[in-house]
């Protein structure tokens, strides 16, 4: 298959050798009290596949991961975090030296406005949970961007293309990889995914359903070719 | 060791042969929208250990489990659920024929008052999440109790004994197994646990820190001896 020939060619040639790639993966957990938390569906599989592909392409690869039950890919340095705030701090700590940042993590948009130190006892009747916004990591990285190539993901259930293109502009990202998480064989917890890549200058390319590991290699090969090939 | 001799004796004699044991385990997930949810810390390890022990003691064992990454113990029938409501319905479906019900699951006390069908877009500023109470499964089982022996767990961070004894009365349970989840080597995600059992008639017995599988066998052996031995 052409895919394998291309991937094999690039893997052999290590086109990301000398580049530093930072990948974020998994969900974050936002604690309400010592036993309860808010979180997102995310198995971390796409992010771990992206980190593995980056390492195979020769990059110095750091994976910043929320809580998932996946093994660290060979040749990848992993930093484990729990909350959106911890993920932000870990990414900022790696950002200056990064050449390519791939933000696959499903970071919580909101966290409880206060974290209770003791388990909150339930009461009769309804309740409300006061929420505050977490820092938008992709937006922060977009604002601080100097030489870095910035790749975001967009997991949407509707208006996928429209949201992805708007996100590309608004976040000052270089690519947005969009998937419709309500589609079959795509998104959370599946081993396969189908995505469309949107880039600067109306760039757009769709990939059919394929295993996440293969897709990760194709995506990084595409972006490496466009950004780093001379 | 005496523990092993006792366990070995009971395992060989299958003292729960002919009895039906229902164990609930793991957390529940309460969806906010297709990507976000509320949940509790719970690895499911204590519940899976209780189900395994029940099967080893000869019981016809059903394990009703929230989302965890654990294998089904040998000889155990597993029913997988996601939400508190699904867990309630599954337990009620098994309750009439049950002799012993062990409620280890960390069921959410609250769920979002409404579940959004599409991913909710984040907005500027703070937000509130409207919550409603889920049905208290242990209380429901206590009210419907005829011949069943009902065992609840209490994961507390403070006033452990006081809360456990009050829970025993209030829920019409036969035993409450209490652990202090803020203690070292106990509670969530640990392979060990330290508990105190509270029962009807001021019964109280503490177990030191030990592996959850060993503790499960000791707990079930104790209760079997008190309830079913002639």
What does this structure look like?
The structure is a homodimer of 230-residue chains. Chain A has 230 residues and is an alpha/beta fold. Chain A has a single domain (2-112, 130-227), classed as CoaB-like (Rossmann fold, 3-Layer(aba) Sandwich), CATH 3.40.50.10300. Chain A has 6 helices and 12 strands. Chain A has helices spanning 2-13, 45-56, 84-95, 137-144, 160-170, 212-227; strands at 20-25, 29-31, 36-40, 60-65, 76-80, 100-103, 110-112, 127-133, 149-156, 175-180, 192-199, 203-211. The longest helix of chain A is centred in the C-terminal third of the chain and has 16 residues, at 212-227. Chain A binds chain B through residues 32, 34-41, 69, 106, 108-110, 113, 118-119, 122, 124-133, 155-158, 181-182, 188, and chain B through 32, 34-41, 69, 106, 108-110, 113, 118-119, 122, 124-133, 155-158, 181-182, 188. Strand 8 of chain A pairs antiparallel with strand 8 (127-133) of chain B, so a sheet runs across the interface.
C-alpha geometry of chain A: globular
CATH superfamily of chain A: CoaB-like
Query: Could you name the CATH class of chain A?
Result: Alpha Beta
How many helices of chain A? The count is 6
| Contiguous runs where pLDDT drops below 50 for at least 5 residues of chain A | none
User: Portion of residues in helices of chain A?
Assistant: 25-40%
- Provide the domain count of chain A: 1
Q: Biggest chain pair contact, residues each?
A: A-B, 35 and 35 residues
Structural class of chain A: alpha/beta
Give the H and E element order of chain A.
HEEEHEEHEEEHEHEEEH
């Amino acid at each position: 298959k052409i895919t394998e020939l291309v991937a094999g060619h690039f893997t052999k040639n290590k086109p990301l050798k000398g580049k530093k790639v930072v990948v974020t993966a998994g969900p974050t957990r936002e604690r309400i009290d010592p036993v309860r938390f808010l979180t997102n569906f995310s198995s971390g599989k796409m992010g771990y596949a992206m980190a593995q592909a980056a390492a195979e392409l020769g990059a110095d690869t750091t994976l910043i991961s929320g809580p998932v039950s996946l093994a660290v890919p060979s040749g990848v340095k992993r930093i484990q975090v729990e909350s959106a705030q911890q993920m932000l701090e870990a990414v900022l700590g790696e950002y200056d030296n990064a050449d390519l940042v791939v933000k696959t993590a499903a970071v919580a948009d909101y966290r409880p406005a206060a974290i209770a130190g003791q388990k909150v006892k339930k009461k009769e009747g309804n309740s409300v949970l006061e929420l505050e916004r977490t820092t938008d990591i992709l937006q922060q990285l977009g604002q601080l961007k100097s030489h870095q190539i910035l790749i975001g993901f967009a997991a949407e259930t509707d208006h996928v293309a429209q949201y992805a293109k708007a996100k590309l502009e608004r976040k000052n990202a270089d690519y947005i990889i969009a998937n419709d998480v309500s589609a079959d064989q795509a998104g959370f917890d599946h081993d396969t995914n189908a995505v469309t890549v949107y880039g600067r200058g109306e760039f757009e390319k769709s990939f059919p359903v394929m295993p996440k590991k293969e897709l990760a290699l194709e995506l990084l090969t595409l972006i490496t070719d466009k950004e780093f090939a001379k």
